[in-house]
Amino acid sequence: MTGYDLVAIFVTAAAVFLPKAVPLFLFSEAMPAWLRRWLEYVAPAVLAALVAPQIFLADHAIASPRPAHLALLATFVVALVTRRMLPPVAVGLAVLVLGAVAGS
To answer: Is 76 in contact with 47 (CB distance < 8 Å)?
Structure first.
């Protein structure tokens, strides 16, 4: 992975995250309490929905550990613990990068 790849990843992440996060920060006080409580569970639910199918194979057996599977599992666990969006993504990316570096 080159420095340009890393810059592209961070620019893409900012381009996706900022348009979604800024309105929530700006208008969070205007939202009803029930909506704020509901939104707290959206990110972990989406991450769980994305991660769980990738951990299991088509025959519902646990896949052999590979860097991608370990990153998915780490992302899932951190999402359950923190119930936030950024920490699971950061941990999953770190595990994936470390697994790729160790494998090469």
So the answer is: yes
